[in-house]
Each structure stands twice: as structure tokens, then as C-alpha cells.
Amino acid sequence: MEDIKTLTDFQYDALKEVGNIGIGNATTSLSQMVNKKVEISLPDLKLVPIIQVPIIVKNAAPVVGIIQQLKGDSSGFLVLLLSKDSAKLLIKLVLGQAEDSATFNEMEQSVLLELGNIMNGTYITSLSNFLGIALGLSPPNQVYDMADAIINQIVGMMSLDVEDVLFLRTEFTVNSEKIEGRILIFTDSVSLTKILDAINRLLGK
User: Fold this and answer.
1) Domain range holding 88?
2) How far apart are CA 96 and CA 182, in angstroms?
């Protein structure tokens, strides 16, 4: 089995290209939902050891997590993390207003679930199409908690050990306001190796 801690430049480039395509498609969908121009920064992608994940996603306040189970040729979980401010801004763009409260009402939660499903789904669809492997997602589940608590919850739901996590960060700009989104893909080493093997086949390696 390949050592997944040492990705080649070609593998990183392929995963970044998937990120560009997926986030680009998500931007198009978001732009249509809010009827406004949405700009994005190029996604930043890393393969991070699981023990370092709580450090890189650490927030001083609770965050919104949209969690979905990864199904198909690879198994695991995918989570989109949004700060409260970013989540409220997205809600305001879709609904025209957002309650100034510490929590989210039922309508706001519905909007976040839909937006999260779009962003997560477009990324996974792009990954599936690009690599020619079957990948899908379960219906989304939303949590509002500290980022490290959300990470621990996901790891606890997985039946196999997770060694490394794919971490994708991008920034959306709407009406000069910035929204940061962080997508993390949790898979066991067998599933991640399947993804890397598909990349190697694509590259003729």
C-alpha cells in the first residue's frame, strides 16, 4: 500500500485541479441562488495528519458544520465548516435577512443544509467524474459546535482509523464581503489509497 503521507507533486496537482473544478461549480450554483456575482480564491489543499486537524481548524467560537457520509468506491465523511459570520452572511444573501441571534432558526438551518449539500456535492461529483470512480454523499446533517468537537464527532463515527485528512480551504467574495469555507474529507487509509490509485491511473503512472 502507498504511503499516503508522501503525495507526489502530480497527485497534489490533480487534487487541486479537482478542487478548482468543484469549487468553481459550487460558485456558479451559489451565484444563481443569491442572484449575485460570486468570486472565489483558488482553493488551498493539504493532506493533514489527523492529530493536526484540530489545530488548523481551531476557532475561538462555535462553527457550523455540514456533515455528509461518503459512499461508493471510498467511504468516510465529508464536512463543510463555516464561521457563524459566514453562515449568517450566506443566509442573508439567500433570504434577504438573517436573525441577529446566537443560533439558527429552522429556515436558516434549511438554507445552510441546502448550501452545504451543493458545495459538498459539487466537489465530490467533480472528484468522481475527474477520476472515473463512483462516489456519492448521504443527505446532509448540520451541527453547531466548536470545530474540534465536530472533528472528534466525525472520527468517532468512523469504524476504521483515520490517519490523514484532505483539507480544502477557499474564500468567496460577494458584494465585497468575504466568506471562508473549509472542506475536510475523512477517509481510512484504504479508501484514500483508492483515490490516489485512480489519480495514478489517470496520469499513467
Assistant:
1) 9-203
2) 24
One-letter amino acid for residue 76 of the chain: G
Give per-residue burial for 90-105: e unless 16+ CB within 10 Å, then b.
bbbbbeeebeeeeebe
Is residue 2, in this structure, part of any structural domain at all? no
d(CA 48, CA 53): 7
CATH number at residue 77: 3.40.1550.10
Q: Specify the length of the chain in residues.
A: 205
pLDDT at 82 over 60: yes
**162 vs 87, residue with greater confidence:** 87
Element (H, E) at 77: strand 76-83
Contacts of 41 (CB under 8 A, 6+ apart): 170, 171, 173
158 and 186 in contact (C-beta within 8 Å)? yes
Classified as helix, coil or strand, 174 is strand
**Strand pairing class (164-174; 141-145):** unpaired
pTM above 0.90, yes or no: no
- The cell numbers describing 46, all together, are 493539504
Q: How many domains does the chain have?
A: 1
The string of pLDDT tens digits covering residues 149-195 is 998 888 888 766 778 888 888 888 888 888 888 999 998 878 888 88
